[in-house]
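Module 6 notes. Inverse folding takes a fixed backbone as the condition and produces residue identities as the prediction. Think of it as a translation problem where the source language is geometry and the target language is the twenty amino acids. Below is one complete input and output pair. Work through it position by position during the lab.
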């Protein structure tokens, strides 16, 4: 069993409630992910947290190291396996797609994690990654205020280019990009746009080569 004693574990309910308090941000992120996530396919979320981004897309299986985050996801009907992205407890070719939302910045070994995702995907399977771009307004703000933020203290933020290169090295290709949150902490739900460079929340989809 992998237990990571983290801020997420200690403050799981507070983390989950953040999405209620910031509903327009959450809804904007859901709309961006909707562009990328295939319907009616078998998917898994890695770093599934409390299931905030799994359940709207009917993803019922998650991998998560924090027991307290997992309990909240399980209460909502998910099956959570206690492990980490760097060591995925699945057979080769198990899923049509794998989702990771704001988790990549917490991984201790991104190449290992991407190689594990590649292994568990079926041929032509899709990896869908969503994260706060280091070069965006919100990315710069998070980086600057990181030491005072209990959740993001240990995060290592990346640019879209950096994540793309790491995915290429892990043998993914055919990249698509969407973005949202062009205005920080706006009260309006934003429609996503293709590409990256203006939105703080970026979604990348790439195909297993
Ligand atoms: C910012 S939260 C995101 C949770 C969920 N994806 C969401 O967006 O609500 C980051 C999550 O990554 C998990 N995590 C940290 N290290 C991990 C690792 N090596 N493998 C998988 N998940 C990890 C944390 O426990 C936490 O639940």
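Target side of the pair, the amino acids:
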């Amino acid at each position: 069993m992998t237990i990571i004693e983290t801020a997420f574990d200690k403050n799981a309910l507070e983390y989950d409630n953040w999405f209620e308090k910031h509903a327009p941000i959450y809804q904007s992120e859901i709309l961006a992910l909707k562009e990328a996530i295939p319907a009616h396919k078998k998917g898994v979320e890695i770093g599934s947290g409390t299931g905030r981004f799994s359940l709207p897309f009917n993803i019922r299986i998650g991998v998560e190291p924090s027991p307290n985050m997992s309990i909240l996801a399980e209460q909502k009907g998910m099956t959570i396996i206690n492990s980490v992205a760097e060591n995925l407890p699945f057979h080769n070719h198990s899923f049509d797609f794998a989702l990771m939302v704001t988790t990549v910045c917490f991984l201790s070994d991104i190449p290992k994690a991407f190689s594990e995702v590649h292994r568990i995907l079926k041929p032509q399977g899709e990896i869908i990654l969503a994260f706060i771009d280091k070069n965006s307004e919100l990315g710069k703000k998070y980086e600057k205020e990181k030491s005072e933020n209990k959740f993001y203290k240990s995060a290592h933020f990346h640019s879209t280019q950096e994540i793309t290169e790491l995915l290429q090295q892990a043998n993914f290709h055919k990249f698509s990009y969407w973005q949202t949150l062009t205005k920080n902490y706006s009260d309006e739900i934003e429609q996503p746009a293709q590409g990256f460079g203006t939105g703080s929340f970026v979604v990348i989809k790439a195909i297993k080569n």
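Reference fact for the lab report: The domain at 7-208 is CATH 3.40.50.150 (Rossmann fold).
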